[in-house]
Amino acid sequence: MSTADKHGFGTHGIWIWHGGLTPHQAARVEQLGYGTIWLGGSPEDLAPARRVLAATDSIRVATGITNIWNTDPLAIAREFADLDKDFPGRFFLGVGVGHREATQEYASPYDSMVDYLDRLDEGGLPVERRVLAALGPKMLKLSADRALGAHPYLTQPEHTRYAREILGPDAFLAPEHKIVLESDPETARSIGRPPVNKPYLHLRNYVANLKRLGWTDDDIADGGSDALIDALVAHGTGEQIRDQVDAHLAAGADHVAIQVLGAEDVTDVLEQLPAG
């Protein structure tokens, strides 16, 4: 492992759509030594997390994310309490504001998140058992003040370094990074570009973050430049991918959530990445 596992998540986990992992696959991820399974999408309750927890013995499970617009924070707090009773210490709530383009009720992201966190506090959900989807400075600062830390999505090590400066040394930082196990660059980009382009290169918050990191309109247009796709989707051999992913750890991350693209069974790819 490249950094000390000071928060107990392991330095490497996986990120997968909340309906994309069978019980057998979840158990295999645990057997391979990954520390956390992040369940993506915006389910309306924590039932997907319960299924993964029930299929495994000790791996942590976190939402990536629970969307503040389609969930009731007090109901989520009650579900959290039930999960923590049945699977003590293993579940963490990742919370996010989603996308302006996908949410009719979308209001001020920051103020709405603060309100949601206030309700989670009211429901008794511990600060140290939640993380926030955060890209920009205000939400990153809120992640350090009102949660264990931050879970940025669609980023690169340069953002991780930027986020660590804002979060300070103690907050948890767990970026997501996409991978394609393919050594031919053109083939890898043909797999990685579509899920990056749609929807993310058409969503205001992600585009703003990429521009904050120095990417231009030309990089973002037409599905993303080769350089942009290569920065956001690691490809190559298992060893080469692991080196790219671990650049986040060198930049200040505590943990990296690996999202496998282009595989029928993500565990087949995870098996080919170097252990440890």
From TrEMBL:
Protein's name according to its UniProt entry: F420-dependent oxidoreductase, MSMEG_4141 family
Pfam families: Bac_luciferase
Segments crossing the lipid bilayer: none
Luciferase-like domain: residues covered: 25-118
Alphabetized InterPro entries for the sequence: Bact_Lucif_Oxidored (IPR050766), Lucif-like_OxRdatse_MSMEG_4141 (IPR019922), Luciferase-like_dom (IPR011251), Luciferase-like_sf (IPR036661)
Source organism superkingdom: Bacteria
Organism: Williamsia serinedens
